Amino acid sequence: MERTFAIIKPNAFAAGNAGKIISRIYSEGFSIVGMKKLYLSKLEAEGFYHVHRERPFFGELTDFMSSGACVVMVLEAEGAIKKWRDLMGATNPADAAEGTLRKEFGDSLEANATHGSDAEDTAAFEIGYFFSGLELLV
């Protein structure tokens, strides 16, 4: 089994879509081994997205991610990283395939409803950023 990190972003949460997304997570065969609703501060969002600090969209991204409630999760499944990225769809909802979460719930490139780790090392950092080992089901 593999673990990955996921976020239901503020736009999807505010639109009342968190439950629908969580339902899809379960129906696609994932286990949720950790989950929290939280409000990221600007500083917390900047720390989480530090790899994008030099990118022109960094300020807008961290403003958006600290604009409202989100849900952070640790998902577990066989091949969880790829499986979650496939379920999310393309980063830009306009380019995402039908049936993907970003196509269904995303509003724009920035407000694309969900986030997911892109590799094992990224997943390890992102999970550790939000969860201690004691908070994860075994």
Structure description:
By secondary structure, the chain is α+β, with helices and mostly antiparallel strands. It has one domain: Alpha-Beta Plaits, CATH 3.30.70.141. 40% of the residues lie in helices and 20% in strands. The protein contains 7 helices and 4 strands; from the N terminus they run βααβααβααβα. The protein has helices at 10-14, 18-27, 42-48, 58-65, 80-88, 101-105, 120-130; strands spanning 2-8, 31-39, 69-77, 114-116. The chain has a 4-stranded antiparallel beta sheet, with helices on both faces. α3 crosses α4.
Low-pLDDT residue intervals, each spanning 5 or more residues? none
CATH class: Alpha Beta
In whole angstroms, the N-to-C terminal distance is: 11 Å
Q: How many distinct beta strands?
A: 4
Going across the major beta sheet, what is the strand order? 2-3-1-4
- SS summary, helix count: 7
Number of domains: 1
User: How large, in whole angstroms, is the Cα Rg?
Assistant: 14 Å
List the defining traits of the structure above.
138 residues; 7 helices; Alpha-Beta Plaits; alpha+beta; four-stranded antiparallel beta sheet
Brief account:
The chain has 138 residues and is of the alpha+beta class.
Outline the secondary-structure elements:
Blueprint: E1 2-8, H1 10-14, H2 18-27, E2 31-39, H3 42-48, H4 58-65, E3 69-77, H5 80-88, H6 101-105, E4 114-116, H7 120-130
Antiparallel strand pairs: 1-3, 1-4, 2-3
Helix pairs in contact: 3-4
